[in-house]
Amino acid sequence: MNVIFFGPPAAGKGTQAKIIQEKYGLRQLSTGDMLREEVSSGTELGIKAKKLMDQGKLVPDHVVIDMIAKRIDSPECAKGVIFDGFPRTVAQAEALDKILAERGKKIDIVMELEVDQNKIVERMKKRAAEEGRNDDTVEALKTRLHLYNDYSAKVLPYYRAQGPVPKINGNQPIDSVTVQIEEVLQPEAVKTTGHARQ
Ligand code: AMP
């Protein structure tokens, strides 16, 4: 079962992906986490990406597409993947469809986490204090939110054209958001793996 968590920065995609990963034996693939690893390891890619990330801008499509393509065949991804923060452009969405199709797979569910703007700012401030991310600044946040509105307006219709994209109310406490996500996932999990959560 392959799932996409779509939603603005600090919507709780990563938090929920980690919970669902454990419960369903799926693998969370977060391009943001992968890029932060490249940055902290000081790789050439990381050095290039850091500049864009600190400003809240997107890194080039081919960079994130390559990262996903490299990981998709790992044994941890065998039961399926939760894509978190990817795809962010139609080119990435098309590349993902191609990568999956070549492996006889597809995206089974796309869901959209909706969070109010004031809540996003509140969470971002909390995360900045806790994790010290360079892109959790007011300036970078503005760019990231603006970009999100821009790319969601293109990527969501791409998926809506293929089927329903259920909305999840991400303003609620973590547990309640997980319950909503599971309501969407359970029927698909039963269909694709023959059993519900682990
Ligand atoms: P995130 O943790 O998902 O908010 O990602 C942090 C930053 O990494 C973003 O602001 C972008 O600079 C970069 N990034 C992560 N995922 C992508 C993606 N799919 N496409 C382009 N840039 C990305």
Which residue ranges are poorly predicted, with pLDDT under 50 across at least 5 consecutive positions?
none
Radius of gyration, in Å, reads: 16 Å
- Would you tell me which CATH topology applies? Rossmann fold
Kindly report how far apart the N and C termini lie. 14 Å
Whole-number mean pLDDT: 93
Ligands in the structure?
adenosine monophosphate
CATH superfamily: P-loop containing nucleotide triphosphate hydrolases
Shape: globular
If you had to describe this structure to a student in words, what would you say it looks like?
By secondary structure, the protein is of the alpha/beta class. The protein has one domain (3-193): Rossmann fold (3-Layer(aba) Sandwich), CATH 3.40.50. It is built from 8 helices and 5 strands, in the order E-H-E-H-H-H-E-H-E-H-H-E-H. Strands 2-3-1-4-5 form a 5-stranded parallel β-sheet, sandwiched between helices. Helix 1 (13-24) packs across helix 8 and helix 2 (31-41) crosses helix 3 (44-54). The longest helix has 23 residues, at 138-160. The protein is globular and about 45 Å long. The chain starts with a strand and ends in a 5-residue tail after the last helix. The mean pLDDT is 93. The structure holds adenosine monophosphate.
At a glance:
Helix content is 58%, strand content 11%.
Key terms for this structure?
198 residues, alpha/beta, Rossmann fold, 8 helices, 58% helix, binds adenosine monophosphate
What's the arrangement of secondary structure elements?
Layout (H helix, E strand, L loop, with lengths): L2 E4 L6 H12 L2 E4 H11 L2 H11 L6 H11 L9 E4 L5 H12 L7 E6 L2 H15 L6 H23 L6 E3 L4 H20 L5
Parallel strand pairs: 1-3, 1-4, 2-3, 4-5
The structure holds adenosine monophosphate (AMP).
Adenosine monophosphate binds next to helix 2 and helix 3.
